[in-house]
């Protein structure tokens, strides 16, 4: 009985103390900085070209794709690289399925399907650079940037050890130069670099429609915006404009609620975990700026100007902090969201992407 | 005396070259790096690709007036904005920087 009680106590203490583990891309060092308990504790090195590296997690597996086309599997608990495989000379995005990883490539003009242990399974040739890769049930969806298409691939053996994808449906002439997408339940939303609208594909009905954006006179675009699940709240889709100083707030039926004027051309729009705030980053001369929008009033409530280019922001899982990658100042800042003041700074050389591994979820699994 | 002049001349050349390099990096980081990578395909072609497939004149035309130049380079659509506001030094610096990624034969 005493042993059982002790074990329960250890479990509860471990669970309560398990915090987020933060991985920060060191853009020029081919490395991931590892932050635990708010301390810089480790660096995972030799990770190839880290300009535009993306990190994702599933269970106890961590994966990174690199600018020069590698997919790297690492253990986010031990910080050890386990395997790597080069899918092409240049990769841009990826998605992790139950028994596969799908990598969207610029180089080779393919989408590569590999196993969770990075063994090649199949190569989908699209004759285009590929972006906006997402999963919906047993469908894989992505955009072909050079041919203006959306492909929906179906896994014909979803319960098998390996997937096998076939073309289910192709949508042609969807818009000019699709550059990214977000997905919310059954809605796949595409952004276009050269068309003044977004595309909405309903994956249940396989019907596609466009929703106009009033961009107005277009600014010079110096960095392509990013779409993501982090811009979807209960009430709104927040869409960063391409070539305009606006963030569009749409209802879930794609009625435009407001075009929020912001200080520069937006790159990332990221909602806090409680969906109360939207952090917006920018490009060009406004690179050092971040604005915070109140999602109830859709008004700007805070303006930050940091000491250098801001390449990424991420909210802590509990929403208490906004982490900011100030690449130009070689630091990642932790801004306390109650009061919006700087609580701490981590010295990370040339930081960009910030990714959080939820230790709590995986400590539970360990038991 | 001759040696001193030579050393001063070499130092001045060195400073000049270094200033040019840092101007190139400044132009690259301000205007280009959001879409171009030096060696890998990104939203736009890499500098290595451009250096190996374009003349200096073609590079300048594309930087200054991409709306007129893109078709001649074989593109179906243009996504590049114009940088006609760069001055002569900036243009020279960035084109020289691009050319530095040409494959050595």
Number of helices of chain B: 5
**Low-confidence segments of chain B:** none
Mean pLDDT of chain A: 93
Q: Radius of gyration of chain A from the CA trace?
A: 21 Å
The CATH superfamily of chain B appears as Cytochrome c-like domain
CATH class of chain B: Mainly Alpha
Q: Could you tell me how far the N terminus lies from the C terminus of chain B, measured between alpha carbons in angstroms?
A: 41 Å
Q: Which bin fits the share of residues in helices of chain B? A: 55-70%
**Euclidean distance between termini CA atoms of chain A:** 19 Å
Helix content of chain A: under 10%
Encode the helix/strand succession of chain B as letters: HHHHH
Derived from helix and strand composition plus strand pairing, the structural class of chain B reads mainly alpha
Averaged pLDDT of chain B, please? Answer: 89
Adjacency order of strands in the biggest sheet of chain A: 3-2-1-31
Give me the secondary-structure category of chain A: mainly beta
- CATH third-level topology of chain B: Cytochrome Bc1 Complex, Chain D, domain 2
Number of domains of chain B: 1
Most residues in contact: chain pair: A-B, 23 and 14 residues
| β-strand amount of chain A | over 45%
Instruction: Give a count of the beta strands of chain B, DSSP E runs of length 2 or more.
Output: 0
